[in-house]
Write a structure and sequence with these properties.
The chain has one domain: Multidrug-efflux Transporter Regulator, Chain: A, Domain 2 (Orthogonal Bundle), CATH 1.10.1660. With about 70 residues, the protein is mainly α. The protein contains four helices and two strands, in the order αααββα. Strands 1-2 form a two-stranded antiparallel ribbon. The mean pLDDT is about 85.
Amino acid sequence: MLMIAKQVANRRRAMEILTVQQVLAALGITRAQLYYAEETHKIPPARRMSTGKRYYLPEDLDQIKRQLKGRGA
């Protein structure tokens, strides 16, 4: 039973993960703009999977929107 609960929790978490492409589409910016904002510390660094692939959570997207608003990424 505990295994099933863990699997359900993992699926829910996976559904909340946003890819770089999804973030770019939501913000209307380019990959270069996103990475530049990260490199210049205008936004916090992306989270990383064990494979090194970047991902974001919905709350990250909200925070990025607030921080980039009016700054021009």
